[in-house]
Amino acid sequence: MSALLALLSSLCWGSSDFVAGVLSRRLPAVAVVAWSQLWAFLALTVLLAARGELGWGPWGPYAMVAGISGSGALICFYLALSTGTMGVVAPVASLGVAVPVAVGLARGDQAAASAWVGVVVAVTGIVLASGPELSGGASPRPVILAVVAGLGFGVTLTVIDLGARESVIHTLWGMRATSVSLFVLAALVLRRTGGIPARRQPVLAAVGFTDLLANGLYAVASTTG
Fold first, then answer.
1. What is the pLDDT of residues 15-27, one digit of tens each?
2. pTM for the complete prediction?
């Protein structure tokens, strides 16, 4: 079951990232992340308030780290998608999976031989995908941004798992509470909200909800498998 949840999580992430990457070609990547995160935060806040479960707990530190690393990684990733080749940026960013894998092994997780074969195939694919971009005349900037995004995603996946062992929904809420707070502070300092037209808000909400679903599926999968 955990493998199926992880696969569904991957499909949700891929869908939200594709749409957000396309949006980031026309809109500021920071604004795309900020508004999509805000919609997800509002939805979780309403849900927790209705259940009378708003509050802070031992999952808090993990959620805060996830909020900072996750939003930073998304900004780098969307910037990379907006300026580079999507088929190159996406596999390079997936390199970040090495972080939670390494942490899991250090904590005693056992990996089957087939899993290691998969790791070798994935890394080989990343090298083959990024090679032409780096060796050709194209700028290496999208690939560098994708690498930074991948590392940020890796940290985020690791701390989501740790926080989810206390509470899945609270970790996801705290993660977005942290990122939204930072974006609101930046908006107040810069006196701007990204210039997103109202007609784009439904799509941004869909991106935020799909990304939230991906986080939730992964959190459940990682705590059960």
1. 998 899 889 888 9
2. 0.86
